[in-house]
Automatic annotation (TrEMBL):
This is 4Fe-4S dicluster domain-containing protein. Residues 370-381 have a biased composition (Basic and acidic residues). InterPro entries: 4Fe4S_Fe-S-bd (IPR017896). Residues 52-81, 250-278, 283-313 form the 4Fe-4S ferredoxin-type domain.
Length: 404
């Protein structure tokens, strides 16, 4: 086997399983309870994970996508094959897309161990292209509580994003075999080969372009390909429709206590939060919804309670949104941002330094005073000794007359 064949095989094998960005893991910051969702829901959790954000061996992985969907910070990115498998049907000729699990008796288009393994971003992307049918007929007999909880969370988030009217118009939940009967469009051989060729030339290339490490040089490499694809679709619909749709997105709820310290911006590993200084002297907080994983780590990291958790907002775009404007106040010593109600006009670091310097000066003054007291005491004692010596009578002269 040549070196080029080995490189190609390694690249192919590396794209058949998810990837973990440990810097974005929920467990990176101290929490009361460690997150083990990915390890718990994986059918081969103990064989793959040594701990939630560290992989021992990817060989048992079937690329089902359960860990990708359950990750609260989206630090687990899907493989190239999973992105293609989930999104390629948006360009198919069928009027509807059927999604079901392996236990279903239907001939579904997307088959996974659980419907919840398809994250809500991928479901929303497909629903904005075609009608979506979720085959939930085996769910009544499923005994996997974790998958059931994941499915409920994904469907709830899908409803919140699309809204109830659009969800009812685009998504069908098939709980019984007679609900939403499957109708597959028969294609001729010419249409089939033409469709395969078009998919390989345009659709697959477009999907691969969105993957981490395979993007264009002029664009940021998307760490969340499903959200990136959803953002592109939302932009297309906004330009194509007269009345844009509104989508439910969770964003950090900043309040008036924010003074632009930048702690949330540093904590957000996805780069969704940006603090910008405007020419008019004001500062604004900008959040990019398609980058935000809705994990809430920014709210946990804020020491001044300037973020009231994550709030559901209705937006017409997933691009950057300004969520707060304020005027910065700066520390009079170092120039860093300080709360507007800071009485002394100092930041926390300079305040500690000022207190330390004041204490050091007070301690030095006390030490100097004690040294002066000791010197004065010694001088007084020496003077008293000198006076006592001067006042004492001289001893009589020795009698030498008896010696002659």
């Amino acid at each position: 086997m040549s070196i080029f064949t080995k490189v190609a095989m390694n690249a192919l094998m590396n794209n058949t399983h998810p990837e973990i960005d440990r810097k974005q893991c929920w467990n990176l910051r101290p929490h009361r309870e460690q997150c083990t969702d990915c390890k718990d829901i994986c059918p081969y959790g103990d064989e793959i994970f040594t701990r939630p954000n560290l992989v021992k061996d990817w060989d048992p992985c079937t690329d089902c996508g359960l860990c990708v969907s359950v990750c609260r910070t989206q630090c687990i990115t899907p493989s190239a094959e999973q992105v293609q498998r989930d999104l390629r049907l948006a360009g198919a000729d069928n009027d509807a897309i059927w999604v079901g699990c392996e236990q279903s008796a239907r001939r579904n288009d997307i088959v996974r161990p659980c419907v919840g393994a398809v994250c809500w971003e991928a479901l929303a992307y497909l629903a904005l292209h075609k009608k979506l049918v979720l085959d939930l007929t085996p769910c009544g007999e499923c005994e996997n509580d974790r998958c059931a909880a994941l499915l409920r969370a994904e469907l709830t988030r899908l409803v919140e994003f699309l809204g109830a009217p659009l969800f009812e118009a685009r998504v069908t939940l098939a709980y019984q075999p007679e609900d939403a009967p499957y109708h597959a469009k028969e294609l001729t051989r010419r249409e089939m080969f033409a469709h395969v060729g078009d998919s390989s030339k345009s659709g697959t290339r477009q999907l691969l372009r969105m993957l981490p490490g395979l993007g264009d040089d002029d664009e940021d490499e998307p760490a969340q390909p499903f959200r990136y694809a959803l953002n592109e679709r939302v932009k297309q619909l906004k330009t194509a429709t007269e009345t844009p749709f509104h989508y439910g997105v969770y964003l950090p709820a900043f309040n008036s206590s924010c003074y632009g310290c930048g702690r949330c911006e540093k904590t957000c590993r996805a780069g969704a939060i940006r603090i910008e200084d405007l020419p008019d002297g004001q500062t604004r907080v900008v959040v990019t919804p398609w980058k935000c994983s809705e994990c809430g780590m920014c709210a946990d990291s804020c020491n001044h309670k300037a973020i009231d958790g994550m709030k559901l907002r209705s937006l017409t775009t997933l691009g950057p949104v300004s969520v707060l404007r304020f005027k910065k106040s700066f520390c009079k010593d170092c120039g860093k941002p300080v709360p507007p109600d800071a009485a002394d006009g100092l930041c926390a670091t300079c305040r500690v330094k000022a207190r330390t310097k004041k204490r050091q000066e007070a301690a030095a003054a006390r030490a100097k005073a004690r040294a002066a007291e000791r010197a004065a005491k010694k001088a007084a004692e020496a003077e008293a000794a000198a006076q006592a010596a001067a006042a004492a009578p001289e001893p009589p002269a020795p009698d030498t007359s008896g010696m002659n």
